[in-house]
Amino acid sequence: MTINHHQNHPIDYQSILPTYKREYDELWNSSPEFRKLSNKVYRYLDTLPVGSELRFHRYTGEKLKWIMWTCWAYYWDPINVYRYEFSPDFSSFRHYGKP
């Protein structure tokens, strides 16, 4: 999946989700490096203070993709879906608190 950070229209999440889920599962099952990074990102997000965000501008290439896949996985966890969000331009993943 390619995310254009300069899109001016809403993202069609229904079309992204199956692709994301398949690719995330494939990476999880085939790459120890991905599992290690994904676990590290999960732990970081678990401790991210309300009002803070993980900014993606420092990452490129495969590492950026892996971090974004992990944020998607974290977001879709039923505990987190109402407390976290991607910024409108997908440049960060924010913890905005409890609903």
What is the compact description of this entry?
With 99 residues, the protein is mainly alpha-helical. The chain is built from 3 helices and 3 strands; from the N terminus they run H-H-E-H-E-E. It has a 3-stranded antiparallel β-sheet, with no helix packed on it.
Can you walk through the features of this model?
The protein has 99 residues and is mainly α. The protein has 3 helices and 3 strands, in the order ααβαββ. The protein has helices at 13-30, 32-47, 61-76; strands at 53-55, 84-86, 92-95. It has a 3-stranded antiparallel sheet, with no helix packed on it. Helix 1 packs across helix 3 (61-76) and helix 2 packs across helix 3 (61-76). The longest helix is centred in the N-terminal third of the chain and has 18 residues, at 13-30.
Number of DSSP helical runs: 3
SS elements, strand count: 3
End-to-end Cα distance, whole Å, is 30 Å
Spatial order of the strands in the main sheet? 1-3-2
User: Which outline best applies?
Assistant: globular
Multimeric organization: single chain
Reading the helices and strands in chain order gives: HHEHEE
Q: What fraction strand? A: 5-15%
Rg, please?
A: 13 Å
- Give the fraction of residues assigned to helices: 40-55%
Which parts are unreliable, with pLDDT below 50 for 5 consecutive residues or more? 1-11
* Biggest beta sheet attributes: 3 strands, antiparallel
Mean of all residue-level pLDDT scores: 81
What structural class is derived from the secondary structure elements?
Answer: mainly alpha
Throw out a few tags for this protein:
single chain, about 100 residues, mainly alpha, 3-stranded antiparallel β-sheet, about 10% strand, disordered N terminus
